[in-house]
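Extended Data, record Peptide deformylase
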Amino acid sequence: MSVRPIRLFGDPVLRTPALEVVDFDREIRTLVADLTETMLDAPGAGLAAPQIGVGLRVFTWHVDGLLGHLINPKLTLSSDTQDGEEGCLSLPGLSIDCVRAMSVVANGFNMHGDPVTIEGSELLARAIQHETDHLDGILFLDRLDREARREAMRTIRESDWFSADTQVRISPHGTNGLGI
């Protein structure tokens, strides 16, 4: 297990859809361990494999004392929504209100290849949706309305970590809704 560097906004891996995991081997178990350790060190409520430069559909979460991971997630979202503050380890210091589904049922696999179902609401639902978006090359900025996104981009450009050489790419997905 090791703490890995977190990729920041502008890194192309954050806009590249991740590949399905097909082999549940030692490499996947090491990836889950590294994601967990990196997320806890940051600290964060979740971390997806693309955020550490690995293009696989794997993420971890740590919400309300519950620590977990999910591989190859498929989500079913509730029709009721929540509007709340959201941040991202790949966008340090940025926190903006974002609309998400109030609850989610997530089906996928654990690191051993066993099928699992995770049901969550409020913050856990937000974290699962946020991390699944990362696996699809979507950032929570893509879910903001035009004015909020413009304000977020201004804040990002003024941040200490952002470089003028960073290539900013907006998602081609129509993501102003809750699902793709």
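Summary. The domain at 12-158 is CATH 3.90.45.10 (Peptide Deformylase).
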